Amino acid sequence: MIHCRPFGKTGHDSTRTIFGAAAITDRFTDREAEELLKILFRYGVNHIDTAPIYGNGNSEVVVGQWMEGHRDRFFLATKTAERGYREAWVSLRTSIERLRTETIDLIQLHNLTDQAGWEIALGPDGAVKACVEAREQGLVRFIGVTGHGLQAPHMHLKSLERFPFDSVLLPWNYQLSTNADYRDGFFRLLALCTERRVAVQTIKSIARRPWSGNARTADTWYEPLAGEGDIDRAVRWCLSHEGIFLNTVGDARTLPMVLESASRQGPRPGDDEMEAMAVDREMKLIFSGEAMVF
Fold first, then answer.
1. Across the strands, what pairs with 76?
2. d(CA 104, CA 106)
3. DSSP run (H or E) holding 146
4. Closest residue by Cα to residue 189 from 180, 199, 179
5. Which of 126, 186, 122 lies closest to 157 in space, CA to CA?
6. How far are the Cα atoms of 112, 186, 212 from residue 286, in angstroms, in the given order?
7. How many CB atoms lie within 10 A of CB 32?
C-alpha cells in the first residue's frame, strides 16, 4: 500500500502517488478499464487526476463509470483548458456530466503558463471566476493550477500572487533538477506552498528524453524510462522530496511498476547514482526554451 499525506489544506489524506488518468486512452476497452481499477485498489490509490483532453474525453468517461460505484473511495480532480468565463463553465459542466458526480473535489486551470492566457484566465471575466462560482454552488470544492515546461515554477509563483489556489502541478525529475533556473524556481515554489499549505503535485518523474525516430513503445508524448530498476530509481528520487505528490505516468502498461516502487518507499538514490543513470540511458530534458523569471 502507498503512504498517504495531507493534500494541502483540503482535509483529504491522498496517496503520495496520484493516478494520472492520462493513461486512459480513447482505445481503452471495458476489460482494460476494469483491470486498471483493480490495480489502483491493490495499491490503495485514493486520488485520481483526469482532464477533458485525455483520451479525447474517454478518460473522464471511464473514470465516471468508476465513480458510479466507488465515488467515496477517491478524491476526484479534473481540469479545464479554457481561459474565458463562459467557455470554462461549459467545460466544467461537461466534465461533471462525464464524471457522473455531483461534486468535483478539485478543478484545475490546465497548463496556465503563457502570459496572454494567464491574463485572461485570472482576469475579471476569466476561467477562475467560473471556478469560484462553481465552488460557491457546491459543484467543486477546491481550485488548482497546472503547468508544463520550464516556465511552470515561475508562472505558478505568479499565479499564487494573484489567487489563493489550493494546489499546483508541474514537472519534476532528476534531469530538471540539473537546470539551475528551474531547480531554484521549483524550490521557491515548494517553500511558498509549504508555508501556505498548498498541495504540490509533480509529473514526468520517469521521463527519459524526447522520442527519437524509433517506434513508440508507450502512450506518452515523451520516451519514458522502461526498465524496472530505472523506474524504481526515478520514483524513489522524486518521492524523497518532502511535501510533494507524484502523479503517475500516462501509460497504463508502465503504471504497475511506478506504483510498486512507490509502495516500497525505498531510500533516495544518491546524486552519483542518478547521474550515472542519466548518462547511461542518454537522458535529456523533454522541454526546450529558457525558463521565464518573474
1. 48
2. 6
3. strand 140-146
4. 199
5. 186
6. 18, 17, 11
7. 14
Residue 215: DSSP 8-state: P
Using DSSP, state whether 137 is helix, strand or coil: coil
- Measured CA angle at 7 (ends 4, 13), to 5 deg: 40
- Give the whole-angstrom CA distance, residue 86 versus residue 125: 8
Would you call 169 exposed, middle or buried from its count of C-beta atoms within 10 A (0-12, 13-18, 19+)?
buried
Picking from 197, 146, 140, the residue whose alpha carbon sits closest to that of residue 8 is 197
The C-alpha atoms of residue 220 and residue 211 are separated, in whole angstroms, by 9
For 102-152, the pLDDT digits (tens) are 999 999 999 999 999 999 999 999 999 999 999 999 999 999 999 999 999
Where would I find the H helices in 71-179? 85-99, 115-121, 127-136, 152-162, 174-177
**Cα separation of the two ends of the chain:** 40
> Side-chain half-sphere of 119: how many Cα atoms within 13 Å?
2
Q: Can you tell me the distance from the alpha carbon of 119 to that of 159, in angstroms, rounded to the nearest whole number?
A: 10
Residue 173 near residue 206 (C-beta atoms within 8 A): yes
Domain locations in the chain as residue ranges:
4-280
248: Cα within 13 Å, side-chain hemisphere:
36
**What pTM, to 2 d.p., does this model score?**
0.96
**Do residues 218 and 224 touch, judged by C-beta distance below 8 A?**
yes
Average pLDDT, the chain: 95
Mean pLDDT along residues 227-246: 96
Nine-digit cell at 21?
488518468
Q: What CATH number labels 4-280?
A: 3.20.20.100
Grid coordinates belonging to 178: 540539473
Task: Reply yes or no on whether the pLDDT at 59 is more than 50.
Answer: yes
Report the C-alpha gap between 132 and 80 in whole angstroms.
13
